[in-house]
Amino acid sequence: MTRTVSIHSYRGGTGKSNLVANLAAALARAGQRVGVVDTDIQSPGIHVLFGLAPDQIGRTLNDFLWGNCEMLAATYDRTAVLGSCTGSVHLVPSSIKAGDIARIVKHGFDVALLNDGFQQLSRALDLDFLLVDTHPGVNEETLLSIAVSDTLLLIVRPDRQDFQGTAVTVDLARQLDVQDANIVLNKVLPGMDRAILSARAEEAFGIPVLAILPLCEGLLSLGSESIFGLSSPDDPYAVAVSAMAARLLR
Length: 250
Prior knowledge:
Blueprint: E1 3-8, H1 16-29, E2 33-38, H2 46-49, H3 61-65, E3 76-77, E4 88-92, H4 98-107, H5 112-125, E5 129-133, H6 140-147, E6 151-156, H7 160-175, E7 181-188, H8 194-205, E8 209-214, H9 217-222, H10 228-231, H11 236-249
Parallel strand pairs: 1-5, 1-6, 2-4, 2-5, 6-7, 7-8
Antiparallel strand pairs: 3-4
Helix pairs in contact: 1-11
């Protein structure tokens, strides 16, 4: 049975895609078969972290949504970039072509097809986890991704705007009857009291804090060249993400 995990943030710049990539790698290295779908169709980018160059991308999620192919035809096995690994990672990127993005923005797509694609991919690849990298904010595809999730991870920075916006998303998740919603506090500065920050978040949102991830200069310096946890597994950020993966496995 595939566990669908949507990773969402109310605002951009929270480190969501880096977290998705590092979490996928940690789960795969723990022996899991992991699918990753980039539903941030208006500003895709997670393919960069998995070393998938533009000239390597043929079919994309866009093609599936427009009825041009099955979801599996838009899926790329990226396990090789993880090095020694007992699991696997399979990525469905969104198109980075300006014309395709403009078409989505102007005409949209049948959002219900997303869920069909998730199920197709999960069955075809016998996935243990399906990670959905959502578009920031609230729109139709985000609501669907949240609604079909077994687990929702809401990425929040210790920032007043993030807190207020995330509260809206938490309310929507309750209305959509999401049973397992969690907060992930990201980009936490070294001097911040983590116990106080965690208590503040749980009081504000009424859901548990799954993880607290430190602001990571090494991750910023890497500039999305690759998946940070693979080259720096002992960094506090990578250790915290691995602990997240272990909690999801439990």
